[in-house]
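Case study B.
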Amino acid sequence: MNILIKWYYRLGAPLWFYPLAGKLIPWVAALFLLFLIPGLYMGLVTAPADYQQGESFRIMYVHVPAAWMSMFVYLAMAIAAVVALVWRVRMAEIMIISAVPIGASFALIALLTGAFWGKPMWGAWWVWDARLTSELILLFIYLGILALYNAIEDKTTAGKAMSILTLVGVVNLPIIHYSVVWWNTLHQAATVSVFDKPSIHIDMLIPLLLMATAFKFLFLLILLLKMRANLIEQDVHSGWVKKIILDKQAEMEKEHD
Amino acid sequence: MTEFLHMGGYGFYVWSSFGLTTVILLANIIEPILHHKNALKEADDFYSEEN
Amino acid sequence: MSPVRKKRFYMVLLLVVGISIATFLIVQAFSQNMMFFFSTSEVKQGKAPKDREFRLGGLVVEGSVKRIPKTLTVQFELTDSITPVSVEYTGILPDLFREGQGIIAKGQLNASGVFVASEVLAKHDENYMPPEVADSLAKAAKINAENAKNAEKAGSTEAISESIKEKSE
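Model:
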């Protein structure tokens, strides 16, 4: 019985997940655009300029959602890592390895746009302050996880090693979040937090929340695309891919008749 | 329009930020689509030869 | 535990210990870095190093900014609202540099006690609003000026960031 359940997790789940993800993708893409378009328009056009920073504050609308997502993606990966290690769910490992490049991209965007914001406002592209340094470490952790998974040939071992490294890296998340409180940083404190009233005018806040929601859907969209690609690639010789391919080929032949 | 692109003198910084973000995220969308296509083609070839 | 599992367990343990040490060192480095940050009062009390560079933080004193004609040299005073320190800087200032703004300057004290900065960075707060709202808030703040003054007197290093916040509220 136990072997059967394991077998289901190992090979059964993709046959169910793959077509479902395929059906979800256009809807997630539509939701992404639904939030992105008004978010961009309000952020770049209708939101008023800032009293101190003028028009340059609009960099916020890509910088802040990207920085949030760089941490959100990692948190999602850490939850998947627990699931992967405790319940041996292979789909969780596929989710982690698919999410890593996306999280790394968000961290890179946060660092690059931060530099383009820091140069005119602070007077420096980069400073070694705690917030910037801990975000850079997050990018390195993402790259480390990616390298570890690709370095190990056997994907069962690789998945386990990756999950452990992902969990170890979680210590960096509170460091990033509280760096502006614990240390004397050049980076300012949080503008939007769960418990306090946001210290940003409502006309500037709405596009920020729209963009943040758009980025969440974008993450989901890219994650589904990557998981489907990784699943087919890794399982080429397994039964479920065979079934999908043969079904497809049969459908093609039907169309030809 | 020129005023919009000028961004109160911060055009270079604002548009560089939005441009870099667009390039990185677009690459993230295109890469898995191509990857998926290649993987499907490989699987298709594998099972076509088998028959 | 089987020998293989035991070996695996020790590998994971080693990894966790290694990462923990690395984290501890990074946190230490951050704290060390923070020690190079001095307030203007600490400089006047002679607590800041005389022979090496450090960071000086404070607010630009209103009406103290003097530009030397035909050069990029600027002279101004920084204060933590208790004691001011004279600063001299040659170079391009960040756009946010203005009177009353929070500034972090990197540099060294010269023989006459003037802080010669090699880098000037502007610190801004986490508040974002349109200029009209900032104006009306500033008017309201004037009425509460008494309270703000009392708050500014409390604390020295903390007063810098506190007073920046108050300015914009």
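The mean pLDDT of chain B is 92. The remaining cases will be described in the next quarterly update.
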